Amino acid sequence: MVIYLTREYHMGNAAAAVIMLSWGALSNITPIFGAFLSDSYLGRFRTIAFATISCFVGLTLMWLTAMIPGAKPQPDSPATPHQMFLLFLALAFSSIGSAGVRPCSIPFGADQFTDGNTSDRERTLRVYFNCYYASVGLSFIFASTVVVYVQDRFGWKVGFAVPVALIVASASMFLAGSPMYVKVRSRGSTLTGFGRVVVAAVKNRNVDLEKLDLAFGYEQGSSEVFLMPSDKLRFLNRACIRRYAGEPRVCTVEQVEDLKSVIGVLPLWSAGIMVSLVMSQQFGPLQAEAMNRRLGGRFTIPAGSFSVFQLLTMTLLSACYDSYILPAVSKLSGRPARLTLKQRMGIGVLISTASTAVAALVEAKRRRTEENRMSALWLVPQYALVGLAEAFSVIGQVEFFYVALPRTMSSYAVALWTLGLGVSNLIGTALVKAVQAATARGGRPGWLATDLDEGHYDYYYWVLTAMGVVDFFYFLVCIWAYGEEVRKKPWEVEGEALVEEQSD
User: Fold this and answer.
1) Closest of 187, 161, 33 to residue 96, by C-alpha
2) 439 in a structural domain
3) Per the UniProt record, which residue ranges are transmembrane (predicted)?
4) Is 281 a member of any domain?
5) Distances (CA, A) of 94 to 91, 166, 168
6) Domain containing 272 — which CATH number?
7) Domain, as residue range, for 87
8) What total number of domains does the chain contain?
C-alpha cells in the first residue's frame, strides 16, 4: 500500500508512512470494541459475519480507486479532497472489518475444542495457536508474493481485484459451515461488572478487611468453590465484602479476581508494544526499491514482496515449534524442553531489538554503495529476525492473555495484542514526525527524506534499537512485578483445604 500511495497518489515517503501507520492504528485499536460487542452482545459468529461484509466493502472501494477514471490523481497532479475521501473510506471499512475478525477468529476456533480433559485441551490449544499463526503466515506469504506480483505485473486494477475475489470465497466458506460450528453465547458486559467493582471498592474504602466474619465476609455468587480474594491489589477486595447477610448487589470474589487479572497483564502488554513498533515499520519496501532486486538473469523481486521472508520465518517456526523443535531440543538435552509464555515474550523483545540493529547496519552499508548496486537480499536478515520476534512474542502474548484473562473475555486476548499494535502505530507516527521535524531544520533534508540517499534511515533504526534495549529491561521489571498469578485462592473451611489453581 505504501508503494500505491507514493506512485499513484504522489505522496512523499514520510506522508505515505504516516497514513499507513494511522490506518494501522485504527485497524488495531478498533478490535477492542469488536471484542466488547462479541463477548457482551453479538457472539463471535455473528461478529465475524458482519465484519467480513465490512471487509468486502472496504476492498471493493479500494479496487474502485484503481478502476474508476478520476478516482485517483492524474500523473503529476495532487490528490483532490474527493479522491482522498474515497481512499480513506475504503481504509475505514477495512478497519471496521478488522475490528470484528481479528479478536474473534482465534477464540471462535478455540471454542470448537470442547472435548477432552483439561490437560488434553491445553495441549490441543497450544498446538492450535501455533497452527493458526502458521496458516495466517501462509496467507500473508500468498499476499506478499502472488498478489504483489500480480499488482506489479498486471497493474492495480487486476491486483486489487484478487483480494476482492478472495474475501468473497472465504466469506462463502465461513457461512456455509455455520450448522457445524460450536457457537458460545455472549454473557453480558464484563466491563460493566468491572465498573461495579471499582465503585464498590471506593464505597467500602473504610472497611477493615482484617475484621471480616469469614462466614459472611466475601460474596461467593454461584460458585461451587468457596473462594477468597488474593492479596494482590488488595484494595479491590473491599468490592466483594458482605457487611451483613442478604446485602443486595454485592460484587463476587470472581468478579474482583477477574478485574485483577486484567490489571495484572497490562504492564506486560505495554512491554510488548516495542515489538509491534518494529513489526509496523514501513520503510523496508522503499529501501528495496533503491537496491538491486534482480534474482538470476531475468526475475526481479517486487519491492513489496520482501516481507515474505518475515512471514516465512514466522510461519516455519510456528508450524515446527511443537512438532519438531521442542522434541529435538528435548532429545539433545535429555530432558523435556519447554519455554514458558513469559520467556517466549522476552525472547521476542530481544530479537526485535536485534532486527533494528541489523537494519541500521544494512542501511549504512547501502548508503556507502553505488546506487542500485547493492543486492536487496541484504534485507533478508532483518526481515527474518522480525519474523522470529513475531513468532516468539506475538504468539506468546496472545496465548498468555488467553490463559490469564477471564474465560468470559476470550476475545480480548487477541484484541489486547492488536490494541498494542495500534498504540505502536500511533507511537510510530509520532516518532516519524518528530524525527523528521527535528532533523529537517535549516534546509536539511532530514533523516527520513524522500530520497533515501539524502536521508539517514540508519540513524532512525539506531533510535529504535536504543528504545528496544530500554524496553527489554522494562519487560524484566514487569515480569518480576507480575510474579506467579493465582487465579483462585481458596479458604480452608472447617479444616478442608480446597485445590489452588495457578498458571505460568
Assistant:
1) 33
2) yes
3) 14-36, 48-71, 83-101, 131-150, 156-177, 299-324, 345-362, 382-405, 412-439, 459-482
4) yes
5) 5, 14, 14
6) 1.20.1250.20
7) 2-186+258-485
8) 1
